[in-house]
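Quick illustration, no need to memorize.
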Amino acid sequence: MILSIGSSLETFKRVEFREGFNVLLSDRQPGASDKQTRNSVGKTSLVEIIHFLLGAECSKKSLFRTDELIEHSFSGAFDFGGGKLAVERSGSAPAQIFLLSEFDERNDLPIKIDKQSGRPYLSNKNWKVFLGHILFGLPADQSGTIYEESFTPSFRSMISYFIRRQNSGAFISPERQVEKQQTWDWQENLSYLFGLDWRISFEFQKVKARENAFKELKKAAKGGALGDVIGTVAELRSEVTVAERKAKQRREQLENFQVLESYDELAARAACAKTKMQALVRETVSLRETLDHLEEALASEAPPDPTILEKVYASAGVELPGVALKRLDEVRVFYVSVVGNRKSHLQREISNVTEKIDANTARASILDQDRQQTLKTLESRGALEDFLALQKVLAELEAEAANLRERFKAAELLEGAKTQLDIDRGNLHRRLQQDFQERKEALDEAILLVTEAISEFYDDRDGRFEISATDRGPEFKISIEGDRGDGIASMEIFCLDLALLNLNAAKSRGPGFLLHDSHLFDGVDERQIARALTLGAQATETQGLQYIVTMNSDIFDRLPLPDTIDRDQVVLRTRLSDETESGGLFGFRFD
């Protein structure tokens, strides 16, 4: 429990607590209107100070690092499990928790000595480990244990259910003591506080982390960074089959390929033979045309008919004398000689042309035979360049097939990972169900504590506390019938917190106190507030526990509390007020 809260600030109003029910009141300035609030007198700041002394983080925006407070320290005295502890902490050195008591001469604590003041202190990290050990049974030495890992129960998360903070959004839902608290955080810490196997929730978080990684990879595979790298198994199976077939066919072609070193030379020889054959054909065509002409000329060669010549002369009226006739005979002889010579010449030309045609035909036949043989050689073998080109194509096909196989394997792994994740989550779900069966008594006790508290508030409404084993981990849900704006949400939080206090006290663990800021009761009917305070007071009567409430005095005075609660006795000696600038907790006002 909390014994006292103080400060080195001279104007600070020291607050001392007692066992049982404690009420810290804030008084209204006489004559103040209803629109004036007491939100700045320090009720919520007291909650922040207690958290500060119990190891809360101290960021640059922290209340304790403001210019007005950073040079001052705050102190607290606590009674945890029969051992009284007193500590001090400041915003100027938030990493040091100075020890104001002997801590029962614990030699196992890593206590250090401040060089400037010579005072003993613990690091804030070790202070939280120590508190987690003595209050909640966490390991005193967490090195080498599962508690060093992420997603495990922690002192700071658990203590925050016993001291909810308005500034953190702790009054929004029962299971969350921080507005944006991660699911794993409340699952594991509430499981621990309710006596369930929190390691199952821990394993659920590991599966969830793998699922998140899988989702990101799947998202990338569907068109993101890995869109061209990984496809679906169905798509890739077909592509792999086709690619491997193409590579096999080209491989067989290459295995049967014979390299002909003189391939280029023979190819040129075949081409040259073809060119020569084409030239011979053209020349032979020309020679045949010449032969036809010569044969026609030879057939038409003959000496002139002498009678025709005489008729010509006669028709011309020329009388040929004997001398002329003699000349004519000579001419006839000459023409016969000329024709004979012409025929001899034509016959020689015909013979020459015929010989050339026969020679060209023979030459073309030899060239054709040589070309056919060369082509057969080229058909049976290939050039080195063709062989290398085939090798390059084969390498590309095999690389493509290998890439597709790797993508196929990756796709199979993705689908296999999804299947394995489903299996792992299903196994954890069964483990959680089995754990709930084995811890039925603990669950029943928690359910009864909450539902009985609900029944104390409402006669006309049903309420229940459900602890479910889902495939996403444990779920804790309090539900009360009615309008959510009628203070019901606040009462759900109250019932859960009170159950946590009682359950852990029965196991001799927990802080031994429950503190509720007045913000919890905003919008709550005064009769329900009175019932909540009565339940809180009753829970502390015989168990040595402590229930602390901060509240405005005018509201407290109107509450229909039972006679069993002595108002004068439960109200703390320290009272806050907005009457003057010095009426608040710090003794002055600051932004």
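Confidence is low (pLDDT under 50) at residues 32-39, 224-229.
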